[in-house]
Amino acid sequence: MNSRRDDRRGYDDPLRIDLLESDADHADHAIEALNQTVRTEVGGLRLDVHTEVGELRKQLVGLQRVLIGILVSITTAAVLLAVNIGFTQ
Predict the structure, then answer these.
(1) Cα-based torsion angle of the residue sequence 57, 58, 59, 65 in order, rounded to the nearest 10 degrees
(2) For the residues of the chain, what is the DSSP string, one character each?
(3) Is residue 51's pLDDT more than 80?
(4) 11 touches 19 (CB < 8 A)
(5) Residue 8 contacts residue 19 (beta carbons within 8 Å)
(6) Whose CB among 15, 24, 34, 64 lies 3.0–4.6 Å from 11's, allowing a Cys bridge?
(7) Tell me: the pLDDT tens digits for 10-23?
(8) Domains contained in the chain, number
(9) Most distant CA atoms of the chain, gap in Å
């Protein structure tokens, strides 16, 4: 595979400078396009993460309510058992 330098060996210096500037412009455009793609992908990932965090919070709130319900049930059962034992003695 030939390098650009070998391909452009016969060109005069002003033309080689123009070609190098053109190459730099193409590289700049490619880098900007890549940056835009990365920004778009990162934005999409952030949205996905925020959505997942929201869903996880909803699940945790539901779990917290279930655990509080279990705690209230156990407490109520313990109080009723204590009252029942108190009346039977």
Answers:
(1) 110
(2) ---HHHHTTTS-HHHHHHHHHHHHHHHHHHHHHHHHHHHHHHHHHHHHHHHHHHHHHHHHHHHHHHHHHHHHHHHHHHHHHHHHHHHH-
(3) yes
(4) yes
(5) yes
(6) 15
(7) 888 899 899 999 99
(8) 1
(9) 113
pLDDT tier at 87, thresholds 50, 70, 90: confident
Cα within 13 Å of Cα(61), Cβ side: 6
Q: According to the model, what pLDDT value does residue 1 have?
A: 62
In this structure, are residues 23 and 4 in contact, taking their beta carbons and an 8 Å threshold?
yes
Q: What is the extent of the structural domain holding 11?
A: 4-88
Within 13 Å and on the Cβ side, how many CA atoms surround 50?
Answer: 6
**How much is the CA Rg of the chain, to the nearest whole Å?**
35
Average pLDDT over residues 34-52: 95
